Amino acid sequence: MDDDRLMVGSSATWPWTCYILADAPSLEAVAAVCNVVREAEVDGARLWRYLRIEARVGRPLFFGNA
Hints:
Blueprint: H1 3-6, H2 27-39, E1 41-42, E2 45-46
Antiparallel strand pairs: 1-2
Protein backbone atom coordinates (compact mmCIF):
# COMPACT_ATOMS: atom_id res chain seq x y z
CA MET A 1 0.00 0.00 0.00
CA ASP A 2 1.07 3.56 -0.55
CA ASP A 3 -0.60 5.26 2.42
CA ASP A 4 2.68 7.00 3.26
CA ARG A 5 2.53 8.76 -0.12
CA LEU A 6 -1.21 9.03 -0.78
CA MET A 7 -2.77 9.97 2.57
CA VAL A 8 -2.41 13.39 4.21
CA GLY A 9 -4.11 14.97 7.22
CA SER A 10 -5.91 13.78 10.30
CA SER A 11 -8.88 11.45 10.48
CA ALA A 12 -12.13 13.39 10.68
CA THR A 13 -14.06 10.75 12.63
CA TRP A 14 -13.54 7.93 15.08
CA PRO A 15 -11.77 5.47 14.96
CA TRP A 16 -8.54 7.38 14.61
CA THR A 17 -5.57 5.81 12.96
CA CYS A 18 -1.89 5.95 13.85
CA TYR A 19 0.76 4.82 11.40
CA ILE A 20 4.26 3.70 12.23
CA LEU A 21 6.47 3.48 9.17
CA ALA A 22 9.42 1.22 9.81
CA ASP A 23 12.08 -0.69 7.94
CA ALA A 24 11.79 -4.25 9.23
CA PRO A 25 14.57 -6.80 8.82
CA SER A 26 12.19 -9.61 7.79
CA LEU A 27 8.58 -10.68 7.47
CA GLU A 28 9.12 -12.86 10.55
CA ALA A 29 10.06 -9.76 12.57
CA VAL A 30 6.84 -8.04 11.51
CA ALA A 31 4.81 -11.11 12.49
CA ALA A 32 6.58 -11.23 15.87
CA VAL A 33 5.55 -7.64 16.65
CA CYS A 34 1.93 -8.46 15.76
CA ASN A 35 2.16 -11.55 17.95
CA VAL A 36 3.04 -9.39 20.98
CA VAL A 37 -0.43 -7.84 20.77
CA ARG A 38 -2.00 -11.24 20.14
CA GLU A 39 -0.47 -12.86 23.24
CA ALA A 40 -0.09 -10.04 25.79
CA GLU A 41 -2.45 -9.92 28.75
CA VAL A 42 -3.39 -6.98 30.97
CA ASP A 43 -5.24 -7.82 34.19
CA GLY A 44 -6.22 -11.20 32.75
CA ALA A 45 -7.63 -9.81 29.48
CA ARG A 46 -5.98 -10.21 26.10
CA LEU A 47 -4.62 -6.93 24.75
CA TRP A 48 -6.05 -7.53 21.25
CA ARG A 49 -9.56 -6.99 22.65
CA TYR A 50 -8.74 -3.32 23.22
CA LEU A 51 -6.57 -2.37 20.26
CA ARG A 52 -5.90 -3.42 16.73
CA ILE A 53 -2.61 -3.78 14.94
CA GLU A 54 -2.37 -4.23 11.20
CA ALA A 55 0.88 -4.65 9.33
CA ARG A 56 1.33 -3.84 5.68
CA VAL A 57 4.47 -4.98 3.97
CA GLY A 58 5.58 -3.26 0.80
CA ARG A 59 8.37 -1.39 -0.88
CA PRO A 60 11.31 0.17 1.00
CA LEU A 61 10.75 3.60 2.52
CA PHE A 62 11.66 6.42 0.18
CA PHE A 63 12.70 8.98 2.80
CA GLY A 64 15.09 9.16 5.72
CA ASN A 65 17.75 7.11 3.98
CA ALA A 66 21.26 8.48 4.46
